[in-house]
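Reopening this ticket.

The earlier resolution said the output was attached, but the attachment link was broken on my side. Pasting everything inline this time so it's all in one place.
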Amino acid sequence: EFNNLPYRDSSFDIVISIDCLEHMEDPLTFTKELHRITKHGGRVIITVPGGQKTKVANIIKNMVGMTRDKYG
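Inline output:
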């Protein structure tokens, strides 16, 4: 379940959620959970589908090797 992630509080400097917020049953609880696992002063980046070729999600996906030819 995404509303109870298996990480300690303040585990990460940065947490990225790519194009999944709109699929969450309880988006507010999910967002709070992302905040919980992010270190104080860290960053939470949340993207939602928007159709723009240069959107942040596409840039991040390309950086980690999630190209359209592999994942659509």
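Reporter confirms the inline version is readable. The chain has a mean pLDDT of 86. The first strand starts at residue 12 and ends at 18.
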